[in-house]
Fold this sequence. Notes:
Blueprint: E1 9-13, H1 18-29, E2 33-38, H2 41-53, E3 57-62, H3 68-82, E4 87-90, H4 105-133, E5 136-141, H5 154-173, E6 178-185, H6 199-212, H7 217-228, E7 237-240
Helix pairs in contact: 1-7, 3-4, 4-5
Amino acid sequence: MSNGIQGKVVVITGASSGLGEATARLLASRGARVFLGARRTDRLSAVVEDIQRAGGQAGSRPVDVGKRREVEAFVQAAVEKFGRIDVLINNAGLMSIAPLAKAMVDEWERMIDINLKGMLYGIAAALPIFERQKGGQFINISSVAGLKVRSGNAVYAATKHAVRALSEGLRQEAGEGIRTTIISPGVVESELPLGSSDPESAAGVKELYRRQAIPADSVARAIAYAIEQPPDVDVNEIVLRPTVQEF
């Protein structure tokens, strides 16, 4: 009996660590064929090799999601390897926390490039494929910061609010058989705390994650739940936090 995941082709950005890596490993263990993208080729290759040694099917291609042509080539490479795409997980993300007054403009632009444009480039590359197939699923990784703004995270929160808005617009516009899911995690083990160059802000974020972070596979299980539903069920949003997290 199919588990709703077995045999599906799942394409994941930001798959060399954290949520992306955990999701790739979990879905592959349940029979998905996974195609992984990130900038670090050594880490990508190691994850793919681990999955293959465990009997799973996996491939990869380096990609910087802030570059449209690279995203297009990445998605096309997945199609060439597996013949189709069933799920695109727009997971790649950057979190740079600092007060607006510090004007970390370069980091603002990189967050917009990765968190917002990167997702849009993924949608632009995969939507025509899904439309031809009359089926597919976008899973866009937002954040609890997409629900609530806190001091110091205004630009990051703005990008994640945009992820939710774009995902809802996509849900309404997407054609027959296309599902759209927003995953909004709280404090989860990942490399996000490493994105802030402001020393004071970075120290606070790292301490928060040290005290409260739950494992990345917590998010992977939520993603698996959304994928495994029958085709007529569209899980539109999942919000999950550590039990101890206040915001």
